[in-house]
Request: fold
Amino acid sequence: MTEPNDDDAWFAPKSFGYGAGLPIRWQGWAFLLGHVGVIMLGALLLHRNQTATIAWVTLIALLPMPLYAAKTRGGWHWRWGSRD
Reply:
């Protein structure tokens, strides 16, 4: 796990590609686990209605993306590994 710097980042950047990597602070881990938990709970409660389940999972999966982007060290942009 990467040691956090003095910034307020919760997530490390991905080495390759676009987006956030693994959490680097407890707040990131708590947010990620809570996010996955809310998706799973909603899917379990709505499992009888496939359309509602798909809508729930899609909405709840995408809704916090701005927070993930804001709390990723260096923000989100395409990374090419060590050349970044």
